What does this fold into?
Amino acid sequence: MKYILSPTTLYRELLIGDIIDEGETYSAVKSGVRRSLFEISGEKKDIIYEHPPSIINYSLQLSKGDPSLKFALGMDSMVWTPNRGDGVHFEARLGKDGKENLLYTKYIDPKNNFKDRRWHEVEIDLNAFQGKFIKLKFITNPGPRGDFNSDWAGWGDLRIEGSDRADESKFELILDEDVKLYRNRQAFPRVFILHQAEVIESEEEILTRIASEEFNLRKRIILEEQIPELWLTTNSTRPKSDSVAKIVDYRANTVGIEANMAEEGFLVLSDTYYPGWRVWVDGKEEKIYCADYFIRAVHLSPGFHQIKFAFDPLSFEIGLWMTISTIFFLGGLFAYSKLRKKNDINNYPRI
It folds into this structure.
């Protein structure tokens, strides 16, 4: 997905997603640490939900370039009533070389203190630790009465920022108005070359394989049918190739592509595989394969090629009507034979 519309910021994904997936968590409440969304004073933020008492440990190496830790503290507005808990105590700590330092601490009680009914924005300078391995610890504890039944607390937009890390961001903010529009820097190009493939005929097994951690979509494709007399390998040690492809003409019903293949492989067009599409390579019609469950691929030999995809609904419709006509013809033939058999039985002389 190349572009994403979101009501909240997405650069937080660099830390929140990693913490949820890789961090060590403890909570006295079931599902006390998870990802969620809070809206406070009309502003939504993606958060790490941490029901007190809870602890999150997360280890990482800081990049260089004046890194800083940023987040926004808040409590879900649904529990802003005096009879539901008595606030939350937040702590952020940093561990390095067996020592632990308190970075930040704050107690908020929006249920009883109107000034706390907002996002508390925090920025902590981590410049002294740039380039080093550290362990961050995020702690929430109940208020002074120890009443935590309705203390729904969150660390919003939790992220590490710095001049170097900004260049590593997966998402680029290109529009910031009522909603935010992001460009995914890691999105696949519309056309690319792969030199590894495997065949899986079951659609369910294809989806399972694609979702598995060991399958790399950037190195190989999955095809749904055997390819006779064509190169096919599952060897992950195949050397890197200098093969390249680019789109030279893109329209609603046609796509023109040029490819320079250093070795045999597959040109992959990340448009939906759909009946009626045809492909020509250097003027000769070739087969379109369904790759990775729903996109198009065509096999190419080494060398320079001109590829043209074209949508020809007439050929698809003719094939469809021929299939339907055949079904009706066979159905009518079957019904006729049954009726004739019945009439023959009725015409038998009675004894």
Remarks:
- Confidence is low (pLDDT under 50) at residues 163-167, 233-239.
- The chain has two domains: 3-184, 191-311.
- The longest strand covers residues 99-108.
- Residues 263 and 329 are 48 Å apart (CA to CA).
